Amino acid sequence: MTSSLSQQRSGRSTKGSSDICMSLQNVSISYGNFEAVRNVFLDIPDGRVTAFIGPSGCGKSTVLRALNRMNDLIPGCHLKGQVLFDGQDLYHPRIDPVEVRRRIGMVFQKPNPFPKTIYENIAFGARINGYRGDMDELVERSLRKAAVWDECKDKLQHSGLALSGGQQQRLCIARAIATEPEVILMDEPCSALDPISTLKIEETMHELKRNYTIIIVTHNMQQAVRVADMTAFFNAEAVEGGSGKVGYLVEYSETEEIFNAPAQQSTQDYVSGRFG
Description:
The protein is an alpha/beta fold. Helices cover about 35% and strands about 25% of the residues. It has 11 helices and 10 strands. Strand 1 (about 20-30) and strand 2 (about 35-45) form a beta hairpin. The longest helix is centred in the middle third of the chain and has 14 residues, at about 165-180.
């Protein structure tokens, strides 16, 4: 990415400010001729947790992946509009998508450690990105931030695949942290985990938002209430004159307002379990 972006982010505001970290300006995303999401306007605040909720097929994961250009890897995927990161368009031709993904990390639905040691899971990405500091210190710091150091500190040369599912997911969070991003995207990070592991991931999110902006897709309404400061509700509607549905943003506000006093009836119906 351009050096000007690095300079801007070095002066990042402290947690708790109302500064906007990312902004979607009239974003529509298509796969070939199929329009998946239409006309999304969304400002994501710095240093907070924002949740995307909505029924299956409403485009929330598609929008999440657009925030670090993961959709670029899907043949035929096309985005219209702007995705701004501190005012800079991430889809500008001069912007390097690899650098975007370093600065805006991703944790996927299913834990996906590399088939390497726990140590190398953390060190690998940092090394590729040119990290020149104390690697042992970086590995420990990343694992501590992901709340999995105590479980891993005596197993650093063991395979990451030998950990439990919840530990693997926290290892993947640590791996994302190790490349020193500003934003961490999480696509249903707890859907494959048991309740105890889910609670540990949620506790980890609360700790991480002191230093990172977090955006999470979740089907779990209680999870959104527990972890998110802001919540965006997406829905889908039938495409006029055709087949299929297109996703759109219904409502976006403080989480407490979305769940207790939503402005739209469809939001009320969804969060109360009447549909979706």
